[in-house]
Amino acid sequence: MIDRTSEANRHGSSNSQTHEGGCLCGQVRYRTVAEPVRVTICHCTFCQRLTGSAFLVEPIFKREDIVFSGIAPRVYHHQSDTSGKRVSINFCGRCGTTLYLDLERFPDILGVCGGTFDDPNWFDRSSAKCRHIFTRSAQEGVVLPAGVNTFVEHALHFDGTPNEPIVLAHALPVTRKT
């Protein structure tokens, strides 16, 4: 059993910032004690395979702003095809629900799988907090939104400098047919 309740208390969590989530069977639970730093919508082929869907909705939290309880998640370590860094997939060993990503490249944050929140619609997806990355791999039929930073690859170069975003004036459906 993992329980870091005292950590949440140190952060002075308020009800408006506290949101809970967990796996399908309820054996792994978590609580966030702050707003996400940002929300990343990732269209890379790794995230497509990870989710079994067209993209990953990933609210990003400071590591200290998430408190876990219940059984410890199991971990699968994967080496990123682009950065060569470790990506640790944390999932429930009982039901298999993927809960969050722990990224060697970004050691201070955790990327939560947005659909695992009890209310998966609570976090802000506005243009100020959200970005779409690896749009070069976006699946046919996905609609990239207007007014949001989009990136053909990652938002950051390997050295940490930012890539230039593309901000669409109008929503753009992805087409792959020639």
Q: In words, what does this structure look like?
A:
The chain has 178 residues and is mainly β. It has a single domain, classed as Metal Binding Protein, Guanine Nucleotide Exchange Factor, Chain A (Beta Complex). It has two helices and 15 strands. It has helices at residues 5-10, 45-51; strands at 2-3, 19-22, 28-32, 38-42, 56-62, 66-70, 74-79, 86-91, 98-103, 109-112, 130-133, 143-144, 149-150, 166-167, 172-173. The strands form three sheets. Strands 7-8-9-10-5-4-11-13-14 form a nine-stranded mixed β-sheet. A four-stranded antiparallel β-sheet has the order 1-6-3-2. A hairpin with a 5-residue loop joins strand 2 and strand 3 (28-32). The longest helix has 7 residues, at 45-51. The chain is globular and about 50 Å long. The N and C termini lie far apart (53 Å). Residues 1-14 have low confidence and may be disordered.
Brief sketch in words of this structure:
The protein is 7% helix and 35% strand. It has 178 residues and is mainly β.
**Coarse morphology:** globular
Q: What is the H-and-E element order?
A: EHEEEHEEEEEEEEEEE
Q: In which order are the strands of the major sheet placed?
A: 7-8-9-10-5-4-11-13-14
- State the CATH class: Mainly Beta
List the total number of helices.
2
Structural class: mainly beta
Helicity, in percent? Answer: under 10%
Report strand %.
25-35%
What's the N-to-C terminus distance? Answer: 53 Å
Which whole number gives the mean pLDDT? Answer: 91
CATH architecture: Beta Complex
Name the poorly predicted regions.
1-14
CATH topology: Metal Binding Protein, Guanine Nucleotide Exchange Factor, Chain A
| Number of domain modules | 1
Radius of gyration: 17 Å
Sketch the major β-sheet.
Answer: 9 strands, mixed
Total number of strands: 15
